[in-house]
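Study this one:
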Amino acid sequence: VGCDRSKNLVDICGEKHFQAFVCDALSVPIRSGSCDACISIAVIHHFATAERRLATIRELARLLRPGGTALIYVWAMEQEYKNQKSKYLKEKNGSKNKEKEMNTGPAQSDQGPDNSSQDSAWSDQLHNGLKDDSCGAKPVVDFRLPIHTNRTSFHSQDLLVPWHLKGGTKKKEERVDTVLFPGGSKESELCPVFHRYYHVFCEGELEAACRSLDCVRVQKSYYDQGNWCVILEKL
């Protein structure tokens, strides 16, 4: 059984004859202790406070039976780990076809916002702040969030990632940023750009949040292609 905040994505699951329903990760309408296993891929990094992120982990644990397990994936601050760049960074100079084949981004089910990497227009909007010695992040020092330049390293843990809606239509009253793709062909047209919130996790942050709950035990914590991952067991 699957669930998602997006009705459109749930409808796609229905068309493919999968069982899925719309809900919020903070309140899943399933009885406590009724699941043998739960998977949360590229979800928790969209919650904007530490309290809400912890609440989603607690809700995930609530669904599990004793001895049940959960797998969590979140986008990592460290896109270069142990002298190895993630596929997300490596795709910056790769061909479009290769990127589509690799199909990677911030976890497999939450793809990078735009494989065309046409985000340089926002690179000058990153805001400088005091250095966070814990993981090299720069905290936001005013009400504005920095806008990430796609296929580059992160400079802040809390940021907005441009999402290019290719082939989309825009109503006159809609006020969204636009970007012009190069080329001069029929495909070179203005496309609306939306911004999605992300909190990218530093090493140990997800594991520490999980360990703060007395109802679960961390079985394993590891790094996987630009993501921090944890496997939990319900006590």
In short: Residues 95 and 101 are 10 Å apart (CA to CA). Confidence is low (pLDDT under 50) at residues 97-105, 108-133, 170-188. The chain has five helices and eleven strands.
